[in-house]
Inverse folding.
């Protein structure tokens, strides 16, 4: 997929983002310290189940980390200086988030490699469920948007889950000042602020009902966003046996890899044209006379996502080592695995996979996303028949994948507050539609996967 930088370079007629400022070394150290405290508290709280009718919502440590990190950012003005997460620190947390996410991707790649025969056995389920990811946003979101009186903003808000490549596609095709541009911006901001929380709660609730095969839900979790995939797959895996939980993680990773690899082209050539066509068909039926167009925010600079500061090589390595260390803390607190020599070696392998994947990403002029390279390296190391694959799988298997997800969501939470002012500018109707689109990509893929895993005849 295209990077956030490319997304903004291809969007015309935008004001340059306001500078986010630079953080001092002491500020960066404080950010890491706060993230560690958040991770420890989240892991100590553990899983909390909230019954809802016949189902339940599972609040995992990764969700507690996201919520606590967000609370620190939102309350920055009322906290003492040592606990204050200033706007520059929030941007620094956003810059750390993406590299840290590669650790989770590497861990999943290492899990996928040993399970490739089982994944390939899923056959058409894994192939066709991708249509649910790419069309589910429109199927679930567009009718609701039209019923709420939203006009062409609905196209931008429902043709995809609205990450950076979607901003680029809409910006180049329509311009960000257009209704379609305001719609995709609303979807982007909603996903940034609430996406991981929403998809985790939804996935956990659906999993608790026992209607779907957990592997179908796992494939639905591969929505193309690393943090959302981590949150959704974690909520599903938490309700399964250890063996099934491992399968959930591997199938979610495989689905997410497919979505990430082909997502830009699929949304550009299929999802967007189909959504435009569907809007033309459905708007006269559902939208006519049902209210004025949604007054989405004008594309002022304050409403546009800002570029996170770039990290140098030493800062990247520090981010990877810190996030891995925080993951080991959670691994010990929640899963009882002390960081002995074998565990530390397993963590070193995961970090090594990330370093190699990132290096290949840079050496190949970023033609493939870093998540793809990292996934492929991890899969190759544990693929049955590869030298030392069993040993690598055993060492890295000592680290639970959810333990690595908690630090990622902690940094995500610490970065959220900077986007809240822009989020507040959105009308409530377009936010509802964004939630429906996020639900659609998950449920659409899960429904198709369920059909292929359990055909009616």
């Amino acid at each position: 997929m295209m990077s956030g930088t490319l997304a903004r370079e291809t969007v015309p007629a935008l004001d340059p983002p306001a500078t986010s400022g630079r953080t001092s070394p002491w500020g960066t150290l404080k950010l890491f310290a706060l993230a560690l405290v958040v991770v420890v508290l989240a892991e100590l709280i553990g899983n909390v189940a909230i019954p809802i009718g016949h189902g339940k919502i599972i609040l995992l440590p990764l969700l507690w980390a996201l919520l606590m990190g967000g609370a620190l950012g939102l309350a920055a003005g009322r906290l003492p200086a040592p606990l204050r997460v200033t706007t520059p620190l929030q941007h620094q947390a956003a810059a750390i988030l993406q590299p840290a996410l590669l650790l989770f991707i590497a861990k999943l790649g290492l899990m996928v490699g040993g399970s490739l025969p089982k994944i390939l056995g899923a056959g058409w389920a894994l192939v066709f469920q991708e249509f649910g990811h790419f069309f589910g946003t429109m199927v679930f979101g567009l009718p609701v948007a039209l019923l709420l009186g939203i006009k062409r903003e609905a196209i931008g808000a429902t043709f995809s889950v609205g990450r950076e490549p979607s901003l680029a596609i809409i910006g180049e095709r329509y311009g960000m000042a257009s209704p379609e541009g305001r719609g995709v911006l609303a979807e982007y901001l909603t996903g940034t602020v609430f996406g991981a929380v929403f998809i985790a709660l939804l996935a956990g609730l659906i999993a608790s009902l026992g209607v779907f095969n957990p592997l179908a839900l796992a494939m639905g979790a591969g929505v193309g966003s690393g943090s959302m995939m981590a949150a959704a797959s974690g909520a599903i895996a938490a309700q399964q046996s250890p063996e099934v939980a491992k399968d959930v993680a591997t199938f979610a990773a495989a689905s997410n890899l497919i979505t990430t690899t082909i997502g830009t082209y699929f949304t550009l050539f299929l999802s967007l044209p189909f959504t435009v066509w569907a809007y033309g068909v459905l708007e006269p039926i559902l939208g006519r006379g049902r209210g004025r167009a949604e007054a989405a925010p004008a594309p002022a600079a304050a409403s546009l996502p800002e570029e996170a500061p770039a990290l140098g090589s030493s800062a990247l390595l520090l981010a990877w080592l810190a996030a891995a260390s925080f993951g080991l803390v959670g691994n010990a607190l929640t899963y009882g695995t002390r960081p002995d020599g074998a565990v530390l070696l397993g963590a070193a392998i995961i970090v090594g996979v990330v370093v190699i994947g990132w290096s290949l990403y840079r050496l190949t002029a970023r033609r493939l996303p870093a998540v793809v390279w990292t996934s492929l390296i991890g899969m190759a190391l544990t693929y049955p028949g590869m030298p030392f694959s069993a040993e690598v799988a055993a060492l890295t298997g000592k680290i639970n994948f959810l333990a690595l997800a908690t630090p990622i969501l902690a940094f995500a939470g610490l970065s959220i507050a900077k986007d809240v002012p822009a989020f507040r500018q959105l009308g409530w109707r377009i936010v509802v539609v964004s939630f429906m689109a996020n639900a659609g990509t998950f449920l659409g893929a899960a429904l198709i996967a369920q059909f292929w895993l359990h055909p009616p005849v």
